[in-house]
Amino acid sequence: MSAWASRAAVGGMLLLVIAGRSMPALAQVRSLDVPSESAAKAISELSRQAGIPIIGPGEQLHGIITPEVKGTFDVTVALEMMLKGTDLVVSRTTDGIIVISDRKKMSKDPEGKNMPQNLKTGTSVLALLFGVLSAPASHAQASSAELETIVVVGTRITLGSSMDVKKNALQSVSVLTDDDLKTNPDTSLADVIRRIPGVAVNASGGGGIITIRGLSDTEDRINGRNLTSTVGRGYDIAALPADLVSGIDVYKTPSASQIEGGVGGVIDFHTRRPFDTNEFTVGGTAKYAYSDIADKWDPYLSGYIGDTWKTGVGDIGILLGGGYQEQATGQNVAFVDSNSVRPDASGRAVDAPTDIGERYMFGGKQLLTGYASVQWRPIEHLELTYDFLYNREGLDFTNQTLLASLSGATPSSTFDTYSGSNAFKSGNWTDAALQSTNSHGKGYFTTWQSGLGERYTDGNWTLSSEVSYTKTLFEYNAPSLTLAGLAPSVAVDTGATLPKFTISGVNLTDPVSWDFSNFGIWHGRDESTEWAYRGDVIYEIGGILQNIQAGIRLDERQVFHKTNYVSDTAPSTLGSLAGTGYGALTPNSIWDNGYPQQQWLVPGAVLENQSVYQGLFGMNIGTVPFDPNQAYSADERVWSQYAQLTFAFPVGEIPVDGNIGFRAAETSLKSAGFENLADGSYAPIVADQHYTDILPITSYPLFLSIT
To answer: How distant, in Å, are the alpha carbons of 18, 100, 294 from that of 364?
Structure first.
């Protein structure tokens, strides 16, 4: 274990000790609602609801199904009810920590009371932990035969409940609970997710598109609901404040109950709800972050407030939250567009660059989030939940590019190549065409999602259902203007860390060096809507056959995509940029002043003055109309069912938990678009698909313990 890891472990344990010592070793009465399920999960939930750490033997909990506990109980009494009929007993240390022990390993304290051998009454947990942490390694190794496997659950223990969930999951899953999120120093959801093994976040453009094990085809969900970004299935998690998230599940392998899912896997974000705590709760984050390339401080504000009440019509809870953040982005880019084989000045054929360039990219997002959750428990066994989420991302990005076209330039030297090949390394050209382009786009991406669900529990039965509606809307408008120039000489070197080119013989910041060349506007709009229903039933059996569950899903999605790009070349009357007042200088710091061309002239205010530029280029089209040939729509209807049986049994001394089941999905997909005809008109195209998939699934995790 590294020094950092050791300090982290000590810190996590001390949090447990502090929490334990602040609790009186008297009755700890709580209002509880713990469903009947596997012991490890039920005890973890009990600990979460009670806010009290619980320590117990992990191996002895396998295969035990605990009964439902609902009502107001002392936590110790509730735990004894859950473990009734087993060889496990419950005790409490003087520090207030609850301990589950194997009755066969009990000893008598001086007062004749049964206590665990490793936690006697009067022994401080702080002293115990300090002794374990400070013990020499040789002593720890010598005593290893006397140690027993324990599992620790509790709201104060980092990764305690996460590891418990992961160990009891029937598939490959990584879990972050509310406790993990609270103890994690990151306030950005993207930074939190990066800590999960096998998960990465693509932060290009200030966004956060998730990949699992390198696969970008993942399905993003919020509270089990699909959350898509218009025509795609990925979601920009930068729009979701971490303060509003109470848990994250990352499923890397499928199960029957996950009927739909990406190739990479499924990531499910659980938002906060008032019945999570059954009490008044409030939290928030306020910070500033500095972007060095953009040279800008960005605010980050988020928070939530909620409470619950007992009324004449049952328990009611309301939680409200929201956030606002700005994300400045900046990139310096050097690039070679493509290569082709052509002669150098000596006539030798060399695979040389056709275009080389550099680019300033800057801009950012403004993200606004609103969230509400209302829960109602009209009777003891029934719980209703309504969630509403609103996200809006304001988008504003600029690209300023300088490009030297070498394909039409004249080679003026014998090119240096890499040893043993004709691959270009460095060389010179004369009379290379130049382009200076400024593209400035603005738009927005908006999401609305609401869901109404119910959960009913009665004995061994759990029934749940939900109907939800999601709408996403994206629109972006990006005009770009290009200037043309000529470089008397260009020297190119691709052998360094960055491909570099040095322009000489022309002043790139002088308007006289540039002529108007081309003006274009890209306009795009995407929209999607989804109605979804899901229903599940679970019956807890107990014993070898632990439970059986089944469910149905119905999803109806509609997608609309429209886009167009129009452009025109400059009329001969425009000529040079000189005297027009439309020029602007780029920043002067690309690659921290480590690149030959730091600054050049670009067209100014292309977005703000796009109507002026349209007039100069004779376009006068106003808002860019959509091109029918680039538009399409799709209607998808998916009807799905699944059934799954969960079992647990030992193979020798190895506990085996597994499941077997199937999932079936019937899909109808109708796509519509247009095609170009010979006379220049458009004709509609419609395609219908209908197919059914049935997939059996089974898994058999083995829990191995090295002693």
So the answer is: 43, 53, 9
